[in-house]
Structures are given as structure tokens and as C-alpha cells.
């Protein structure tokens, strides 16, 4: 990587850190509004076993913005006899494409995220590096063949799709879930 590119990358990262530091709210005891809203929705629908909700509104360094929400009932996630999407009547954001109780369906998706180079490629793509050539120019990501292997793994699991001519992007419906998975994986 040339010096000019390295300086440009450092400036981009510094600007993102400064911007993130200014916008980050500090948590307080009253910051459980999403949880309180979920509990109200679940109680209003007569759901006794609870549920999970994840949501996000993000602006990427590229300027792209994504808003996304998904919820599932506990019984959908734990009981193999309940097909995904059933039992969620009256619970806003709790239906549609549910996970179902067969957790093995998620193995490929998690496996694709289970390599540090793949996580770096995803971060770089979200940051604006979209072509295979730009990704191949990164230090410590391996050979071009290895990078293509990682890109195929991520594409096969749905974390990426190609937009033509060697360009990759994280599908809009996967941006917030990716960031949620990364957040959940931190100790």
C-alpha cells in the first residue's frame, strides 16, 4: 500500500472515530425503551414465554443508511414443533422469516463469520472498499486466491452479494444483523 493511500485510510478512520465518539449516547438506567416496548407488545398479545428483538439505524462511512428490525418469539426459537413465523400474531416485528428451532440452519452463516480475514473483508466492504482489487491490496489478507475463497464463503452464506465486475456489497437487509452478531459476540 502506498504512503498516500495509507495516510488517506488513516484520515478516514480518524474521521469515523471522531464522528462515532461525538454521536455515541451514554447509557443510563432509562435506556431500556426498546426492551420495555417489546415487553408491552408481547404482553398485549398474550405471549408468556417472551421473545427477542434486534433493531438498528446505521449510517456507514460511505454515507449509506440502513434501518432494520426483527423479532422472534422464544417458542419459535426453542420448540421444533412450531414453524418459523407462527405464533406471532399481534406482536409487531415478530413474524416473517423466523429462525425456527432447527439451529443447524444457522451453522453456515455463523461459519462464514468465523474467520478473521472474512470479518476484515466485511468491515472493509462496509467502509467503502468494494472491488476485489481493492480488497486484494490490503495487507495481511492473504493471496488473491485466498481472498476470492473468503468472498465466495461470505457470498454463499448471504453476507455478501456481487454487484458485477468484481464488486461486492453487504445486502441492505444484512447490514444491521451483521453488526448485531458482532455486538453479541463481544465479551
Which features would summarize this protein structure in a list?
187 residues; two-stranded antiparallel sheet; alpha+beta; single chain
Radius of gyration computed on alpha carbons: 19 Å
What is the count of helical runs? Answer: 8
Class from helix and strand fractions: alpha+beta
Low-confidence stretches: 87-98
Strand order of the largest sheet: 1-2
Range of strand content: 5-15%
Order of helices and strands: HHEEHHHHHEEH
What is the CA–CA distance across the termini?
33 Å
Helix % is: 40-55%
The shape is: globular
Mean pLDDT: 83
> What oligomeric state is this?
single chain
Total count of strands: 4
Sheet of most strands = 2 strands, antiparallel
Could you characterize what this model shows?
- There is one protein chain.
- The protein is α+β, with helices and mostly antiparallel strands and 187 residues long.
- It has eight helices and four strands; from the N terminus they run ααββαααααββα.
- The protein has helices spanning 3-23, 33-44, 74-78, 107-112, 116-126, 132-136, 144-156, 172-185; strands at residues 51-59, 65-73, 161-164, 167-169.
- The strands form two sheets. Strands 1-2 form a two-stranded antiparallel ribbon.
- Strand 3 (161-164) and strand 4 (167-169) form a beta hairpin.
Amino acid at each position: 500500500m502506498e504512503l498516500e493511500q495509507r495516510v488517506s485510510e488513516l484520515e478516514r478512520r480518524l474521521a469515523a472515530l471522531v464522528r462515532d465518539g461525538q454521536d455515541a449516547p451514554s447509557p443510563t438506567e432509562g435506556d431500556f425503551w426498546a426492551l420495555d416496548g417489546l415487553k408491552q407488545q408481547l404482553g398485549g398479545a398474550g405471549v408468556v414465554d417472551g421473545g427477542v428483538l434486534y433493531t438498528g439505524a446505521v449510517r456507514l462511512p460511505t454515507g449509506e443508511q440502513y434501518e432494520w428490525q426483527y423479532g422472534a418469539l422464544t417458542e419459535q426459537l426453542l420448540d421444533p414443533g412450531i414453524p418459523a413465523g407462527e405464533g406471532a400474531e399481534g406482536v409487531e416485528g415478530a413474524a416473517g422469516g423466523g429462525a425456527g428451532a432447527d439451529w443447524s440452519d444457522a451453522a453456515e452463516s455463523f461459519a462464514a463469520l468465523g474467520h478473521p480475514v472474512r470479518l476484515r473483508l466485511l468491515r472493509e466492504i462496509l467502509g467503502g472498499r468494494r472491488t476485489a482489487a481493492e480488497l486484494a491490496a490490503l495487507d495481511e489478507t492473504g493471496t488473491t486466491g485466498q481472498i476470492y475463497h473468503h468472498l465466495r464463503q461470505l457470498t454463499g452464506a448471504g453476507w455478501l452479494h456481487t454487484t458485477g465486475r468484481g464488486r461486492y456489497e453487504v445486502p441492505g437487509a444484512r447490514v444491521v444483523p451483521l453488526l448485531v452478531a458482532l455486538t453479541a459476540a463481544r465479551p
